Amino acid sequence: MLTVQQVMVPEVITISPYATLREALTMMRSHRVKSLVVDRQHPHDAYGLLSYNELLRAIVVEEGDVDLLNVYDAAVKPAITVGEDLSVNQAAAMMSRFHLNRLVVVRGNDLIGLLTMNDILARLIDELD
User: What percent of the chain lies above the pLDDT cut of 70?
Assistant: First the structure.
């Protein structure tokens, strides 16, 4: 059985909820990623997620200013999290059911990775070869 830990990306780029959307866009471009995990504000807080979808909504649809809006204004919070030992099948079912492209992976309450639908599909394609 394939687990989330075997497929996830452990190198997650995080951003402060107080960063501007311009800073988020710059960070996404420089790291060549499509999403950022938003840091918790304290140990009992939840992680957030900022992806192209949220940026598009905040900047283009709602005509927000990239220098005035902060990450917490646009991010999805709380982000949906899963444990590292969850089967990829269950994670994929959750993503499909709730129309998600990404899941934040945690160990206990600590961030350890990010699982995307692209990661799952790439792994399936690799196994076909």
Answer: 99
Question: 6 CB contacts (<8 Å, ≥6 apart)?
Answer: 88, 123
pTM of the entire structure?
A: 0.90
Contact in structure between 15 and 50 (CB atoms under 8 Å): yes
Which sign does the torsion angle of CA 121, 26, 82, 11 carry? Answer: positive
| Paired tokens of 40 | 């918790």
Q: Give yes or no for a contact between 4 and 82, defined as CB atoms under 8 angstroms apart.
A: yes
SS3 category, 73:
helix
Torsion of CA 91, 92, 98, 100, to 10 degrees: 100
